[in-house]
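User: Round two. Same drill as before: sequence, then structure, for each protein.

Assistant: Same drill it is. First protein:
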Amino acid sequence: MLKNLIKTIKKVGELKQYRKFLTKNERNKMYLRKNSASGRSLADSKFKTKLKLAKAGVGVPKLLARFRTEEDVEKFEWNKLEGNFVIKPVSGYGGDGIIIIRKRGKWAGDWVKMDGETVSTQDIQAHCMEILAGKYSLYGMPDSVLVEERIKIHPMFLSITKAGTPDIRVIVYNSVPVMAMFRIPTEKSGGKANLQQGAYGLGIDLATGITTFGTEGKSETVTKIYDFGKKKMRKVNGIKIPFWKEVLETAIKCQKAIGGLGFLGVDIVLDKDKGPVVLEVNARPGLSIQICNKAGLKARMEKVEDMEVRSVEHGVTLAKYLFGESFFEKVEAKEKTQVVKPLEQIKIKLGPDFAKASTGKKGKHWVKEIRAKVDTGAFRSSIDKSFAESLGLLDESKILYYRHYRSSLGKHRDRPVVGLTFWLKGKKIVTAVNVADRHKLRTKFLLGRKDLEGFLVSAKK
């Protein structure tokens, strides 16, 4: 599996650090270790998942019917449906067995699927019988059928696809979203947002909700897709996902609601009226999301492995500062590469609390300008402890996590890591910085190479 993954990586980009990618065997070990039997069982049943999430206040599609026997299928009054419904197996996997109906057909008893194909009520009933027999179930066992409302697609996505409803897959580990992708149905995928069947997969920057890279299916690189509104091709990068913060919050809430799933994938669609709605939860999420993002799950999961995540909001904050990409800054940028000197002025963004404490007046934000030392020998930027405390950055609610390290004297200590937004040469940088004792040094802020991507560093003073 790893050899095939490396081969695919080389096709879609210059990714040298393939060891950061999660392989199928590693995923299975992780899911067996982090996901309990009860959690997996609940996730495998779309019906039980729906009930659990609805009880927790998470948005889910409206249930129109559930069939457990052939008699249920035969007795159901299909003529009462107006279209816009989905038929799916309760224990299905990978999108198999799902039929999406868009509207009624020209003749009585006919229905039009998302791909334009016309099917009869008898065809739908026959398909439901196959689901009951276990044709599409995860373990080949007898199954049941769900009939759900089809989500009303968010207006922003109407120009992206005419073949189905796009969705967002978010991978959550230890209550932190570690990776996400935007899946766009195509005619090839039969209106399903499934990469295995030929849908587009676009990586998403976790900090902003802006798309970055794209693939068709599991490996074919895509740089442009067709815009049906403008009737021309558009780049796959730069698409802003609406309700992004709510999407990440919804994914974390799913993990907390189900319980027993330390590692899962959450499929979310955006309803034009309701916002984020969860389609399903997957205890065995696929690995193609790594190709779409040109990044490895393994490295990201290891980073949050033992973190104590205090709340849903804290989980979102960690995702934003730890896994936000610099790519979104380049979406529309056409300027030349800027040069930074060994000493530079930066502007730090602070919250309204600091503005009120400093001026006695309420304000949206406060910007503090300070001198920073550029050090390419350091990976992560760092800020002086006393200075950070004066800015209110060491409040427990502002600390992302503690990094364990060993001092030069051999003592083991914990160093706070805080989220910070600052500007360098006019470029906005959202990052996580170490808090260190720099009171004997001339500068209170050190710029590490992680936050210098896209800049040229001059050796001249």
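Second protein:
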Amino acid sequence: MEDQISKLIRQRDRLLTLAAVSFLFWQGAQLAMDIAQEGGWEFGPFELVVHLCLLAGALGWAGASFLFLLYASRVQRSKAQSVIQDELFCHNQRIAIRFGFMALIAATALLLAADLLVDFSATIALRALLIIGITAPLSRFLILGRDDLEDES
């Protein structure tokens, strides 16, 4: 049973990593396109790279969402949810959410300060905040989980 739980936890961490990286690529490419459009810049030879990042990120995000549905059914079938979502999981989740909140506050302050120096649209600011709001807590949660695994070894 413990081997199955370890496998489920590794799968969860891989899915979270896929989701975070995919979201960062997808929305990061969108942000780059928004900035270039607003600034009137051309990507030139990098336009293909931006579009490939956008496509790969969107497909990765959709794939991660679908795989989470499969993962949830595996966890439910194994009746391991209470073991997977133990006290340490809840503790790490709270830390990650707090970290994400603080990252959003810091990013908002930076964007407000940047608005005094550079004129940019609300779309750019909101997309940047969205990227921070999704990737910061996911990344922090994954780092905390990795640290816990290293402590057990």
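The helical segments are 2-39, 47-78, 81-84, 87-117, 122-152.

User: Perfect.
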